[in-house]
Amino acid sequence: MAMEHRSSTFEFVTAEKVLSVLSYKLLIDAVERGLGLFSKSKSSSGQDANRSSVDQPVRTTVAVPNKGFLGCMPVYIEADELLVTKLVTFFPKNENVPTHNAVVAVFHANTGVPRAFLDGDTITTRRTAAASVVATKHLANGKPTVLAILGSGTQAASHYEAFCETFSSLKQVRVWNHKPERAKEFANKDERRHNCVACESVEDAVRGADVIVTVTSSSSPVLMAQWVKPGAHINGVGACRPEWAEIDPNLMRSAVVYVDSREGALQESGDVLLSKAEVYAEIGEVVNGTKTAHTDKTTVFKSLGMAVEDAVAAKIVLDELGL
Ligand SMILES: NC(=O)C1=CN([C@@H]2O[C@H](COP(=O)(O)OP(=O)(O)OC[C@H]3O[C@@H](n4cnc5c(N)ncnc54)[C@H](O)[C@@H]3O)[C@@H](O)[C@H]2O)C=CC1
Ligand SMILES: O=C(O)C1=NCCCC1
After folding, report:
1. CA-to-CA distance for 257 and 253, rounded, in angstroms?
2. How does this protein assemble (predicted)?
3. Ligand 1 mutation target, pool 158, 161, 217, most atoms within 8 A of CB
4. Domain that holds residue 220
5. How many CB atoms lie within 10 A of CB 253?
6. What global pTM score does this model have?
7. Which of 4, 212, 216, 298 has its CA 20 to 30 A from that of 94?
8. Domain count of the fold of the chain
9. Would you say 269 and 302 are in contact if contact means Cβ atoms under 8 Å apart?
């Protein structure tokens, strides 16, 4: 009987349904608030009326040797009564199926009963780009006109969309891929990409760019310090393993480094760990006004991805669909 009750109470929300309601307009504001709540939860005392309680341990992973990993990303956000976990796999060598696959499970916070399961690929794709937009809004030096994207996969596409939608000042988007034909395919995908040009080298793509996004599956640095314009802002989105890096260690050490979670970065980010760069702040601390946005300096936002971002995205989907 209990099983019958359960199976009739939770829904599976497909990728199509998620995409139909998860707009960047809603998502960027929600992710910004989520990042702020996450950083506030650790900095204020239990007596503080403005305290927010977000319980989000660092992602746990199990490896499948020479293939990939399964990550488990739980969170509880007291303010929203959200009890959520994402299960995500990353198999970078996949050829004919996506490299990332995920489901997001939402539970009723007062009973622990399952409420809904959502396609997690679409949530991961969009909320990651939304987090980069939030960091760029706070850390870019003025209105960006040139964006460089290194990598041309799923995240490249979502970052392209989210950035073009948010920053009307953008005049040119340059894209690079280690397989040049893939950069050309990306730039020529459809007429909406009229402002997009494929570049032969990373240097051609990033020279003079105001904002750079690294979204590759590379395990060694692709973005070199000497090519980056002083004052540029970089969103480092790939390299989610402690032994992987996408960004020149000299660039990591000379830039002001922001992260999504300090604890996460110190466990998972090869860009931070291998370079021994100092982490200046969490981006949520900038959102909360407790740390400075050094917009006049070269800045790096090292993003690893957080459950709090998945949870606020899931909330938008459930609210919009009335579930
Ligand atoms: N920070 C976050 O929240 C998240 C980070 N990611 C990471 O972002 C990166 C991109 O993810 P997706 O676009 O979904 O993956 P994808 O598999 O769709 O694209 C990967 C891109 O990297 C390129 N690439 C592969 N090997 C390379 C190499 N050795 N050098 C340079 N480029 C190489 C591929 O050609 C492709 O353009 C991955 O590292 C992924 O793990 C993904 C999701 C969330
Ligand atoms: O936050 C996520 O989701 C992921 N981050 C790093 C790569 C796997 C998925």
Report:
1. 8
2. Homodimer. Binds the thyroid hormone triiodothyronine (T3); T3 binding inhibits enzymatic activity.
3. 217
4. 135-305
5. 13
6. 0.96
7. 212
8. 2
9. yes
Shared domain check, 272 and 217: yes
Identify whether residues 185 and 299 lie together within a single domain. Answer: yes
Question: Is this complex scored with an ipTM above 0.95?
Answer: yes
Locate the DSSP E strands across the chain. 11-13, 54-55, 60-64, 68-77, 82-90, 100-108, 114-119, 146-150, 172-176, 196-198, 211-214, 233-236, 256-259, 279-282, 299-302
* 163 CA to centre of ligand 1 in angstroms: 18
Mutate to test the pocket of ligand 2, among 124, 237, 306, 309 (most ligand atoms within 8 A of CB): 124
Dihedral over Cα of 17, 26, 155, 41: its sign:
negative
Residues 140 and 255 in one domain: yes
Residue 198 lies in a domain: yes
Looking at the structure, tell me whether residues 152 and 296 fall in a common domain: yes
Question: Which residue out of 215, 224, 259 has the highest number of ligand 1 atoms within 8 Å of its CB and is therefore the one to mutate?
Answer: 215
Does the beta carbon of 30 sit less than 6 angstroms from any atom of ligand 2? no
| Residue with CA closest to ligand 1 atom 19 | 153
We report the CATH number of the domain holding residue 98 as 3.30.1780.10
Strand partners, 118: 13, 104
Report how far ligand 1's centroid is from the alpha carbon of 232 (Å).
22
Token representation of residue 56: 């989000």
- Whole-angstrom Cα distance, residue 23 to residue 39? 24
Pairing of strands 11-13, 146-150: unpaired
The string of pLDDT tens digits covering residues 170-228 is: 999 999 999 999 999 999 998 889 999 999 999 999 999 999 999 999 999 999 999 99
C-alpha to C-alpha distance for 41 and 29, rounded to whole angstroms: 18
Q: Whose CA is nearest to atom 25 of ligand 1?
A: 217
